TrEMBL record:
GO terms for cellular component: cytoplasm. This is Ornithine cyclodeaminase family protein. The keyword Thylakoid does not apply. It comes from Streptomyces xanthii. It comes from the Bacteria. Keywords: Plasmid. Pfam families: OCD_Mu_crystall. SUPFAM superfamilies: NAD(P)-binding Rossmann-fold domains.
Amino acid sequence: METWVLSRDDIADVVTAVGRDALMRRVVDRLAEGFADVGRGARELSPLRDGFERAEPVQGIFEWMPHRDPGDSITLKTVGYSPANPHHFGLPTIIGTVARYDDSTGALTALMDGVLLTAIRTGAAAAVASRLLAAPDSRVLGLVGAGAQAVTQLHALSLEFPLERVLVWDTDRAHRESFARRAAFTGLDVEIADPARIVAEADIVSTATSVAVGAGPVLPDGPHREHLHINAIGADLVGKTELPLSLLRRAFVTADHPEQAHREGECQRLAPHQTGPGLTLLAAEPALAHEQRGALTVFDSTGFALEDALAMEVFLQVAAEHGLGSRIQIEHHPADALDPYALQPAPTPAGR
């Protein structure tokens, strides 16, 4: 059996083939459909992710994120989160690969990059939540954290809302000053602003930082628009949070994966009764979300493997439409299933 491999060049060709706007829209719509399926009980929520934390030689984590669609496939993303990567190694903070296996046989059927996929699906998840909870006429977006994730946060939200201005902040001067260049493809005006101003003026805020454990919040709990919606993206470790607890306690809070969010997201500081229904239920019953519009709302986005599985489906569909990728025999399937040395083709004896 062959494995369908999308290389780095194939991923670039996928983006070129349909354009980044169309690709993002397809992922947003696929996530919205998939979340609603979970909310209706037609699809399973992914298990909790797990992994290793490391302090040396460079602080970070390495995680595995599984999702199973019974009778069809298992999707497994392995992902490293290493905040020092851009500065020390010239590599993305988040590096990963996504693999798909046949649920009946366990055979590896597809393999692709997880770097772009993760950035796109994280932006898409925020767009789904914002579509449900934010004011439809939102025009000012605030971004706290101006790294790679901020680019796709802006991209996804710019396709959902009539944005006119973007206010951005990052503690790293180079990141905040280069963001306008990296986001120029959206055609939106980008202005550097401190977090207090962002909270005060924005209709929607996305926080996507690498703040250290115990070093938050990255936003003040100050004056804000009555209808402010916040996408909290960066909390992904026990003790790592971005928002003030006082703000969380006043807000309607929904999480992508409630159990995981209470372990390591913003919700880790809240009791279960202090949070609202999960995003999957809101996607299945939008009226529940629309009741909260006009008030302070927070989406606690920890990221889970169903999002990766759904985004992978989109990438594979585009690749199939345009004949992209390679078919490679990675796994050893012997001619005799009971003989691991039944190699294909049989080796030539030595000396002949």
